[in-house]
UniProtKB/TrEMBL annotation:
A single GO cellular-component term on record: microtubule
Keyword Cytoplasm: yes
Organism: Solea senegalensis (Senegalese sole)
Localization of this protein: Cytoplasm, Cytoskeleton
InterPro entries in the record: TPP/p25
Protein name: Tubulin polymerization-promoting protein family member 3
Amino acid composition bias (Basic and acidic residues), ranges on this chain: 136-154
GO molecular function list: tubulin binding
Length: 180
């Protein structure tokens, strides 16, 4: 394998390790599983849809890994790239194609396409803006937006022992005194 001076295999190894640990908290970065191999090929633009497809990538992964294994090592990863290079770069020699494929991979890392971003504010500010409250909720805040606490509630519960709309509430004591 011919290596030119501008090709940095340390960057290829770094990319391999980034993808090896992507999405797996227990991963050591020494082995790459099939899912992350596919992600590496997509994110580094090895899969172009014409010369190299997702199926090609899966077949080569199965070809280079050990029979009983579900992951590939860095050496097997290099073999896989050697197999993919002539397919991806058809007009180039084997060495040029391999160099071109290393260029695609080196320094690469997993991209998070389609991942939902965290809303910086917006919803929280809108939900906690007391000036926008209507109806009974509006009555619970003063003009400055501070809550009135219990005073802001129109119907406070009275623990008198009487039902809410009872007309003769508080007359029990006087009735009892009158009977004696």
């Amino acid at each position: 394998m011919a290596q030119s001076s501008d090709l940095d295999l340390d960057l290829v190894l770094a990319a391999f390790k980034k993808f090896a640990v992507h999405g797996d908290m227990k991963a050591t970065g020494e082995e790459l599983n099939g899912k992350n191999w596919n992600k590496l090929c997509k994110d580094c633009k090895i899969i172009d849809g014409k010369n190299v497809t997702g199926t090609d990538v899966d077949i080569i992964f199965s070809k280079v890994k050990q029979k009983t294994s579900r992951v590939i090592t860095y050496e097997e990863f290099q073999k896989a790239l050697q197999e993919l290079a002539p397919k991806r770069f058809k007009g180039q020699s084997k060495e040029e194609a391999l160099e071109s494929i290393y260029k695609l991979v080196e320094g690469g890392g997993p991209t998070n396409m389609g991942v939902t971003k965290v809303a910086k504010k917006g919803a929280v500010d809108r939900l906690t803006d007391t000036s926008r409250y209507t109806g009974s909720h509006k009555e619970r805040f003063d003009d400055s937006g501070r809550g009135k606490g219990r005073k802001g509630r129109e119907e406070l519960v009275e623990n008198t022992g009487y039902v809410g709309a009872y007309k003769n509430a508080g007359t029990y004591e006087s009735k009892m005194k009158g009977e004696k």
